[in-house]
Amino acid sequence: MPPPVSHSHRLFSFSLSEDCLCRRLVQAACGTGARDLVLGVEQYCCDRPNPILQVFYVAIIGGTYFIIVQSSFKYIPGYYVSVLHRYLSIVVVSIGAILFVLTSFSDPGTITSENVSQYVSAYPFDNIIYVEKECSTCKITRPARAKHCRICDRCVARFDHHCGWMNNCIGEKNTRYFVAFLVWHFLLCLYGAIILGFIVAGELKDKKVVYILTVYYGIDNSFSALFPHVAQWLLAVHNTQILLVVFLGIIALLLGGFCAYHVHLCLSNTTTNETFKWQDYIFWMKKENAVKASAYTLKASINAASSEAQKSPQSKWKTFFSRSKTRAEEPVVKNNIYDVGWIRNLCEVMVPLSERSSFSCKKSE
Predict the structure, then answer these.
(1) The domain containing residue 40 runs over which residues?
(2) What percent of the chain has pLDDT over 90?
(3) 88-105 tens-digit pLDDT
(4) Are residues 180 and 302 in the same domain?
(5) What's the total number of domains in the chain?
(6) Do the beta carbons of residue 171 and residue 109 sit within 8 Å?
(7) For this UniProt entry, which segments traverse the membrane (predicted)?
(8) How confident is the model at residue 1 (pLDDT cuts 50, 70, 90)?
(9) Of 6, 10, 53, nearest in space to 168 by CA
(10) Residue 280 lies in a domain
């Protein structure tokens, strides 16, 4: 089964395209002008490069860090957290911002008439999911693993997907930055949740909450007895920190799954675009094999009935409708010729083929 992340990506993309009913409702309720306005906004947000999600990312990161500084830095240094984390937090957030800029503004591997011959030689056609053909928009040969992005209006080498958060395509040259961005932000959220957890734990220790509850209030020194009272105190005094821990934990969990999926793609030298292509190929090949197997079974039944009819006419209908031996369906195998072992696959992501000295020497045959 393919990873659930790819299913979610396809479902989300499909949902965005199913908007005809919405347009009709807007036109019926507010008129043609409102419909055209909605259509214009939709085209800007979904079909054109725009910085909306980039601004949203900056707002999330900046806003979250600001809230942490305002609400939690006063507890640093604490019982479990040293003053070092005041400055380390600035460093880790800055590195995340640098990776964001690199991914957003770096060339993903744009294919032009000047470099297309080198890309065609660098990525051979497998004649399964990639066959030699011309890009109808760019009017150049589309190399294997490349795709024309309708949003950026360009052909991109080793195309993975168009990322709205980066306002950029993810391709041959910036996949390394994108994966590093995912890994770093997963670790960043995990780091933030852990440090905030230690801050809260340190406050419990400093304020001697457990000691006061057990000695002065006579509460039994057990987890089941103390938990409701400790939780009540935390939500009353450190509700901001608790909400931040939950928020960062959820984001870390989501990023961790997305990160693991893309690391798997890198190690197997596959892209998100190719994952969908292989899914479609395997689906149709299985259907074709099923049809062939059914045709073979029917032909075998007819031949058997004809043979039996020559010997015993009374049994021809019985033979025809009897269960014939079904031909086993041929297994559909994913033959990824670009998978050359996880070490070389990883090297191809870290040092793209187009940045190697041998690339400029390649000529299309």
Answers:
(1) 17-48
(2) 68
(3) 999 999 999 999 999 999
(4) no
(5) 3
(6) yes
(7) 55-75, 87-105, 177-202, 209-230, 242-263
(8) very low
(9) 53
(10) yes
Residue 197: pLDDT band with limits 50, 70, 90: very high
pLDDT band for position 31 (cuts 50, 70, 90): low
Please give the positions annotated as active site.
163
Residues 206 and 352 in one domain: no
Query: Among the three residues 255, 286, 320, which one is the final residue of a domain in this structure?
Result: 255
pTM of the model: 0.81
Are 67 and 171 found together in one domain?
Answer: yes
Segment 160-182 mean pLDDT? 97
The predicted structure's pLDDT at residue 48: 82
